[in-house]
Amino acid sequence: MPSSTSKHAPVIVITGTPGTGKTTHAQLLVEESPVPLKHINVGEWVKEQELYEEYDEDWQSYTVDEDKLLDALEPIASAGGVILDWHTSDIFPERWVDLVVVLRCDHTQLWERLEKRGYPSKKIQENNEAEIMEVVLDEARSSYAPEIVVDLKSESTEDLESNVARIVQWIEAWRKDHRTAEQ
Ligand code: DAT
């Protein structure tokens, strides 16, 4: 069942452990999507809009003010046509979300990507363990209906291209369903 009949474009969450390719996928999807999509890199957005409580020196990351974040995102998500790119997904209300894409990556490759990014080793290790333990996937599966959660491998350019092509197909189907629903 469509989550809303008034939206002209869906809300797509792209999630995954840091380094799995969320931003890379979101950027290509913006280019290839048949409907206009706005890409929100939630981590960057939190910094820009100052939606955080404090900076944690130890983990070199911000503690997000979740209430402020949800208030700021509500009108954007309700309007539709947005990709929410974040390493966690359970904070977003189910009514906002039409599709959840969970990206997966081999842990050795992930380690290399995060090393290149200059993450401290404690943070690389924590993320690597989270990927092995499927933390992000479990979280998505326990927060959303199984039919809207899809996990995709993101280890090569071919994966990237075929994943984005698959999401584009899904958007076409979503549009068709919604046109039917509006008639
Ligand atoms: P995230 O947004 O999940 O933190 P990213 O999009 O910034 O990840 O990607 C991290 C790095 O890995 C970046 O150098 C691009 C590379 N990468 C991501 N997905 C890839 C893929 N499917 N094939 C090859 N490289 C990829």
Which short descriptors sum up this protein?
single chain; 183 residues; alpha/beta; Rossmann fold; five-stranded parallel beta sheet; two-stranded antiparallel sheet; 49% helix
Bound molecules: 2'-deoxyadenosine-5'-diphosphate
Overall spatial form: globular
Q: Which structural class fits the helix and strand makeup? A: alpha/beta
Main sheet? Answer: 5 strands, parallel
User: Any guess at the CATH architecture of the domain at 11-55 and 63-105 and 134-172?
Assistant: 3-Layer(aba) Sandwich
Considering the protein shown, what is the CATH homologous superfamily of the domain at 11-55 and 63-105 and 134-172?
Answer: P-loop containing nucleotide triphosphate hydrolases
Classify the fold: give the CATH topology of the domain at 11-55 and 63-105 and 134-172: Rossmann fold
Total count of helical runs of at least 4 residues? 7
> Termini, distance in Å?
15 Å
What's the average pLDDT? 93
Point out poorly predicted stretches: none
> Helix coverage percent of residues?
40-55%
Q: State the total count of DSSP E strands.
A: 7
Major sheet: order of its strands?
2-5-1-6-7
- H and E string: EHEHEEHEEHHHEH
